[in-house]
Amino acid sequence: MRKRITMIMALALLGVTGLYAQSAYDAANIAREDLNGTARFVGMGGAMSALGGDITTMGTNPAGIGIYRSNDAMVSFGYSLTGTEADFAGNTFEREKGRWSLDNIGFVLANKFSNISPLRYVNFGFNYKKSKSFYRNMTMQGLLGRAGNGQYISQVNLMAQQATFAAENVYYNYNEYINFESPNIFYDEEVGWLGALGYLGGLTEKDVTSADYDIYYPLVPSEVDGYFRSQERGGIDEYDFNVAFNISDRFYLGATVGIHDVDYNKYTLWDEIVLNGDNESVEYALESYNWIKGTGFDMKFGLIFRPIETSPLRIGLSLHTPVFYKLTYTTGALLKSDGLEVNTQKYLDGGDMERDFRLQTPWVFNASLGYTLGNYFALGAEYEFENYSAMKFKDVDGYEMGFETEEVKHTLRGVNTFRLGAEFKPVPAFAFRVGYNFSSAAYKSDAFKDIAVNSINTDTEYSNDKSRNTFTLGIGYRGTVVYADLAYKYDTYKSDFYPFYDADLMATQVTNTRSQVLFTLGFRY
User: What spatial distance separates the first Cα and last Cα of the chain, rounded to whole Å?
Assistant: First the structure.
């Protein structure tokens, strides 16, 4: 425990030089992609990096476009239903969110180069896909209990702690005191918004007898009944531009430039009800509004080769650079407590606080195998690795943001992903497909969301997602020119959810599911 406390203090002290907003949880949320693309690709679990011949593979192994010998154009539509089941101390809440979407649209132009020289085809492709959907709702509620020191567990404790740390830093660095009642308090780069909201909302009080810096105490007279609700919306759109080469019908090379467009917004409500000394209920509610928008780019390089000329076995290798994002984080908060109302928008000239930053996601390494038997059976398998702990935050000038990058190292780890897929054609025109994905957890077992002393973050909740399992099924029809595919995907993983960090707070056990149906209509000519 001493080591953990030391780490918390060390991270907190890193956050005294600027206003911090982003977290390792935001970074992982943006970096982790969904399994999506054409219905054929999804039906085979995405395990097509060595097989190629599908438009979506330009985003996994760009060399897969080199397999094409004819032009291709397609569009994919889908319907998804995202569900959460949250269990806190026996209190269970289920939420669902369904939506229709345009998931995929793209084309490949196959250009025959020569029958004699080693270079046979030079192909070009474009693909749009919805690489990430953020649509999700969640609710939890229950009595939070006591900490090991006998103190009642409450978010207000975090507010008092942040205000005290900020007061200590200001006193020892500048020999000054913080005035939380200042009309410019939410612009003060030494002050965290949680601490300011707690004091202005009457949830903490100042110890006026302190000889040095001010000390703030939480007003939590009894056990807390906590209620949480969140609503997430938006997604990440990916636009891939590809060139691929067929060399001697045995070696395939490809490169893809990807443009990523992020549009993510989240609303959270945390509500606490306690009993005061007169056995009357006291309640406060904190609403947080957060948006992350911006764009990024990456490059992907791929190779597919047949080690034995007479064998249908294919080996694929690909490397993805990090996505280099330039993003804007926008936030606002509203706290209501016993007739008091503190809205950050009333203090800020623009209505909300904005912070520009850069995010560098992990490198991606992929190795794959593909095997075919005639024209009636295909099998794909692949392994992928991403080191999430290597992600970096930078400011708009390119300088590394120490607090956020250190939080990433302490919170995240490398992710291993395995994909399997098979396609069987009982007759040339019809195909049946099946696939499976497994991804290890991106979060360390003791990960938590650290809030800097002067952070503008007021959404204190975090969720430590565990390993993911994805199951897929698909069918397809191939005509002379027209083809149509249908796929079903079921994705599930469990999470340990916390509305805020407290070492003694019991986790809410959350089961996350997403069912998706995809339909692709295409033309090969």
Answer: 65
Q: What is the DSSP string of 179-203?
A: -TT-TTGGG-TT--HHHHHHHHTTS
- Among residues 45, 70, 46, 59, which one has the least CA distance to residue 128? 59
Residues β-bridged to residue 57: none
Name the strand (E) or helix (H) holding 159. helix 155-174
Cα–Cα distance measured from residue 124 to residue 254, given in angstroms and rounded to the nearest whole number = 10
Contact 425, 431 (CB under 8 A): yes
> Residue 201 corresponds to which tokens in the numbers above?
């909302």
Size of the chain in residues: 525
For the entire predicted model, the pTM comes to 0.92
Tell me, what CATH number does 432's domain have? 2.40.160.60
Residue 346's φ and ψ, nearest 5 degrees, are -75, -20
- Both structure tokens of 385: 């690795």
> How many domains is the chain built from?
1
What's phi and psi for 99, nearest 5 deg? -160, 150
CA distance linking residue 316 with residue 459, whole number of Å:
42
- The answer to whether residues 7 and 399 touch, using CB atoms and an 8 Å cutoff, is no
> 326, 330, 402, 407: which is closest to 359 by C-alpha?
326
Alpha helices in 332-480 (DSSP H): 344-347, 402-411
pLDDT-based confidence at residue 208 (cuts at 50, 70, 90): confident
- Which amino acid is located at 254 in the chain? G
How far, in Å, CA of 513 to CA of 80, rounded? 10
Output the pLDDT for position 277.
60
* 73 falls within a domain: yes
Using the structure block, give the residue that is written with the tokens 């959810």: 497
Encode 243-276: b = buried (16+ Cβ within 10 Å), e = exposed. Answer: bbbbbeeebbbbbbebebebebebbbbbbbbbee
252-285 tens-digit pLDDT: 999 999 999 999 999 999 999 987 666 667 799 9
Phi–psi pair at 221, nearest 5 degrees: -75, -15
Quick count: other Cβ atoms within 10 Å of Cβ 283? 13
Q: Does 115 map to a domain?
A: yes
Show Cβ contacts of residue 9 under 8 Å, excluding neighbours closer than 6 positions. Answer: none
Answer whether 409's CB lies under 8 Å from 438's CB. no
Q: Which is nearest to 475 in space by CA: 435, 416, 448, 514? A: 435
Q: How far is CA 281 from CA 140, 199, 223, in A?
A: 20, 19, 11
Domain range for 309: 2-143+224-329+356-524
